[in-house]
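Q: I have 144 residues here and want to know how they pack in 3D. Can you give me a structure?
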Amino acid sequence: MKKLVSIIFIFLIVVICASDSAFAARKSSKGGLSPEELTKVTTDIEVLTKKVYSSSLFSPEDNQNLIDIKLKLDTAILSGASPEFAPLYYKAGNLYKDREFTDEAIECYQTVLENYADTPFSAKASKELGKMGIVIKSEEETEE
């Protein structure tokens, strides 16, 4: 019985150590996305953007992929607002806008404004929100 308990204890220690190192490796990647995940999200956005530009129909899988992209970005930004996410959020906003998912598009553009104000995508996001009739207030206006 003692051997069984010892084996289980050693197994648990190994599992805990392995999960800690996997967590540390994942956390050390930019903004909570591994380089492979970042590449996949970027590629998926480009494929969906090409479908919009060519007026191709979105399949149910494409719609699910767009939702998954937004969820991955939203989860990753919690670990830090990596500047690499600015174009991804902006392009996701464009996709949502073109698909007539206005609330999601606004959310993507606002994320760019709030987290990536020092990037060129901030001005682009502001312009897109303006086209949608959304009034952006400056910090001075909100303090008054």
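Q: Anything worth noting?
A: Residues 21-30 have pLDDT under 50 and may be disordered. The longest helix spans residues 2-28.
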